[in-house]
Specification:
The complex is a heterodimer of chains A (121) and B (111). By secondary structure, chain A is mostly beta strands. Chain A is 0% helix and 50% strand. In chain A, strands 2, 4, 5, 6, 9, 10 and 11 form a 7-stranded mixed beta sheet that branches. Chain A is globular and about 40 Å long. The N and C termini of chain A lie far apart (40 Å). In chain A, 40% of the residues are buried. Chain B is an all-beta fold and 111 residues long. Chain B contains no helices and 13 strands. In chain B, strands 2, 6, 7, 8, 11, 12 and 13 form a 7-stranded mixed beta sheet that branches. In chain B, β11 and β12 form a beta hairpin. Chain B is globular. Classes of the chains: A mainly beta (121), B mainly beta (111). Chains A and B meet through β5 and β10 of A and β6, β7 and β12 of B.
Chain lengths: 121, 111
Amino acid sequence: EVQLVESGGGLVQPGGSLRLSCAASGFTFSNYNMNWVRQAPGKGLEWISYISNSGNTIYYADSVKGRFTISKDSAKNSLYLRMNSLRAEDTAVYYCARDRCSGSSCYYDYWGQGTLVTVSS
Amino acid sequence: DIVLTQSPDSLAVSLGERATINCKSSQTILYSSNNKNCLAWYQQKPGQPPKLLTYWASTRESGVPDRFSGSGSGTDFTLTISSLQAEDVAVYYCQQYYGTPTFGQGTKVEI
């Protein structure tokens, strides 16, 4: 059974940092591209970052570029999101999501339950 | 970025009746390599992550009931629930993956 379990969320002050983790199981993690998608409270979905299965191709949404860093450790079956210079508008539930396609990014067939990040003083 | 606009923002449908949700793209999202439209639909119930329903505009994900169907091409797409069940109460999102991924704003379906 495919499972994605996020962790690392919490309350952080504006300007602070957090590192989110996503532990993957039930599939060959190194074969899949992965993404982070967030959802502000009561709002819609926003894609924020993509990393290819090899880790060689990375994309970011403009809203987080230069502040967030996506990475992966295939030996640990884990995906990460390092978030720096956090702002109130980064407050959201952060989901990791598996990309179905093997080439460029497409749609997401499995999602974690999400981890809540709250940026507030 | 490609903008997806869903309509309506919410709708109430009687049990057993048809629900239709529209998604309009700001530009065509046809992938020339396979002649398919780069559009997916998701269902999100309260407190849960999104669940993939359809992709390539009209391909139903394995395990999704056949009352859910996706259609459309070019810039106009539709998700249809042919006979609404109580468990279908949720917010539905379209997503394009032709360019930088974007989602529609969501459509809330109620009984």
